[in-house]
């Protein structure tokens, strides 16, 4: 198998407040969703805006520290990079769900949530309650 690189970089605004949970083993997991936008001209010359929602997680002591600092509140502008990961989990009804998320390695807060506005609402999708990192 060849060597590869799995690194993603994002800048965007949080769609809602981050959520701190703990795995069954007691490890802290901080999850959040970020709206990353793009703007381009279509074939008619009109500006089109597109928002992509990115799921992100931070593990361990850093997760606890960021959760207590209140840097990850709805509307906050952030920059982060990490590895793209996919995981599955089973719902209480027995369905298997698939989640794609970024396991954050580097995180930089860029601005407070005050005065920011997000145009698109976060889709109401179940991101799963059971994290296994």
Tags for this model:
single chain; 133 residues; mainly beta; OB fold (Dihydrolipoamide Acetyltransferase, E2P); five-stranded mixed beta barrel; 6 strands; 7% helix; 51% strand; disordered C terminus
Protein model, in words:
With 133 residues, the protein is mainly beta. The chain has one domain (16-111): Nucleic acid-binding proteins (OB fold (Dihydrolipoamide Acetyltransferase, E2P), Beta Barrel), CATH 2.40.50. Helix content is 7%, strand content 51%. The chain has 1 helix and 6 strands. The protein has one helix at 61-69, and strands spanning 8-14, 19-22, 28-41, 47-59, 77-90, 96-111. Strands 1-3-4-6-5 form a 5-stranded mixed beta barrel. The chain is globular, with a radius of gyration of 16 Å. The model is unreliable at 115-133 (pLDDT under 50).
In short:
The radius of gyration is 16 Å and the shape is globular.
Topology diagram in text:
Layout: E1 8-14, E2 19-22, E3 28-41, E4 47-59, H1 61-69, E5 77-90, E6 96-111
Parallel strand pairs: 4-6
Antiparallel strand pairs: 1-3, 1-5, 2-3, 3-4, 5-6
What is the element string, with H for helices and E for strands? Answer: EEEEHEE
Number of domains: 1
- Write the CATH homologous superfamily: Nucleic acid-binding proteins
Bulk shape = globular
* Number of H/I helices: 1
Total beta-strand segments: 6
Report how far the terminal alpha carbons are from each other.
Answer: 24 Å
